[in-house]
Design brief:
With 308 residues, the chain is mainly β. 4% of the residues lie in helices and 45% in strands. The protein is globular, with a radius of gyration of 18 Å.
Amino acid sequence: MDVARAVVFGAALAAGAGLAGSCKGERQRGAPDAPGTSWELVYEQEVEGNVDLYLIATSGGLARRLTTHPREDLHARWMPDGRRITFTSNRTANPQLWELSPDGGKPRRTRSNGGEESQSDPSPDGRRLAFLSDHEGPQRLLVMDLATGASTELVRHGKGTIFGNPHWSPDGSSIAFSSNWRIGHHIYYVDLASREEHRVAGGCEPRFTPDGHRLAYVSRGISRPTSRLVERDLVTGEERTLIDWPALNYDVAYSPDGSEIAFASNIAGEWAIFRQRLSDGRAWRVTFGGGPARYPDYRPVDPAGSAR
């Protein structure tokens, strides 16, 4: 690790020193020199053996628990209006798709069938939902019209394939995903109009950058004890490393303005959520105590900076 990276690494760990947690939510504290912009993150955390969804401001404060079901609530994604969250839960036995309001009320089931459906991601206009499903066949990538409930198969790679983490491009023209079909886990994106698939690189958990020109993803390889978060230009193929801490680093998400990322890392021993400013690589820890925390997602904001 070079000197610059060692400084970033040390700052990230120092931000969490001496903080305690509680069973209903962790008492958080932002680093004194953390970025001035305050975002809200939804994420999943295991507290006393129970995995639920939580909401926290990146500037610090008390995390608010959004779900309380004894089964697992996972993979939360904000809807574009910033008023709803889509997520996966096995509260009805098989994993299925659900939706909730961060302002309260009971979660609502999005679909109901006997299959396993997970990892939903909303289109930029909020009208469609991409997700993974093995209902009526091998696991595949589907897109559902939220107004009608009609679903369309977009990608199928054959029996035994494991897909992962679909994510829409900002213009809604394509969806990125990972698949282990034939050659191990690779990153792909599929054009919705032509159904043409493009293989990008080996890795998992793809995420389009806010400008749609690049894909960020996890690069690990087989059985490596560490992983990197990298960003690849879809035209030139040029890559840059975002995170290469000596740990497992996963679950990258971009802030709405593209100035920073949130991600999960086990650099401190247990999975926790971190932020990193992209302009200078400074990092801050967001979650402390309670249990492992993963899969952050930024609440969308309008140009004026208020939640939509």
